[in-house]
Amino acid sequence: MSLKLNSISDNTFSIEDLQCLVKNELIGVDQIIDQSLKSDIPLIENIAKHIIYAGGKRIRPLLSLIAAKTFNPIIQHETLYLATAVEFIHTATLLHDDVIDDSNLRRGLETAHKIWGNSASILVGDYLFARAFELMVKTNNLTILDILSQTSAKIAAGEVLQLLHNQNFEIDEKTTLDIIGAKTAELFAAACQTGALAGSADTNQAQILHRYGYALGMAFQITDDILDYTSALNRGKNLGDDFSERKITLPVIYAYHNASTVDKNRLTHLFSETDNSSDNFSSALEIIQKNNGFDTAYGIARQFAEQALEGLKFINSPITHSLENLITFCLERKV
């Protein structure tokens, strides 16, 4: 019998509970971050730290550490290099994304490219990718290096795929989910899989964690796309940032495909306007709600959450419950 989300939901669980399980290791990751960012060029450190220490939850490096601890209570120092590499890959993609999307806000702060310019942000993103590969080598595990190298390529390909479908309301569900998978879920999956391997999991166990991480990442991002329209509180974003940046996310796509011709034309018009007024946002929100965009997207997120939960029944570890609760956190978070 498979587990159900309702059976493992813990109303008292928070991301801080998970962080406490690897508190010392996270301190070690911060130390490696500081060491890795030291440079004779202050701009590199300023830009990188601007985003890294802006209050993110560090979910991806946390996943690597928890995955390792799932199979071995003692986390090796090499795993800290792995977790830091994962954080650097993620941060590099954020710097690049903010330039591509011309975003104004990231984690509650003005984006790096708005402060230092596009060129500096892109180059520091490249620098972080290079540092990430240096840290991968320090794990002394070619399999981990191979997985994260392939993941970095998949993330970049996902960015290109999204660029090809920019402002395309006719994009199908599969392509949209492929983009979410490449841009978000692949790094979640790789963080879990490589963390498991660093914790001495066998290939099959690591693959189970990979599937868990991928499904978790899908649920996380789809929920995030919903929350952008419904609750931006404490997320370091303004309500409706995706609308302002003209991002055609999954709730919008579902609403568009369910909509009447009148609503389709109205939605297309709203996303093509340069006016980001609250009235236009409210109109878009109304159309998406009316055509079940949020409900349909949330149903898909819940399916991925169930998939993430399913594989964990094959993992016997005292801290598996924390991975289970993380699924519910990603699905039910309000912020």
- Which residues form runs of ≥5 with pLDDT under 50? none
The CATH homologous superfamily is named Farnesyl Diphosphate Synthase
Rg value = 20 Å
Compute the average pLDDT: 91
The secondary structure category is mainly alpha
Q: Helicity, in percent? A: over 70%
CATH class category name: Mainly Alpha
Number of helices: 17
Q: What oligomeric state do these chains adopt? A: single chain
Give the overall silhouette: globular
Strand order of the biggest β-sheet: 1-2
- The overall number of domains is 1
- Please report the distance between the alpha carbons of the first and last residues: 32 Å
Largest sheet, if any?
2 strands, antiparallel
**Order of helical and strand elements:** HHHHHHEEHHHHHHHHHHH
Q: Strand share of the residues?
A: under 5%
Q: Please count the beta strands (DSSP E, at least 2 residues each).
A: 2
Question: Would you tell me which CATH topology applies?
Answer: Farnesyl Diphosphate Synthase
Could you say what the CATH architecture is?
A: Orthogonal Bundle
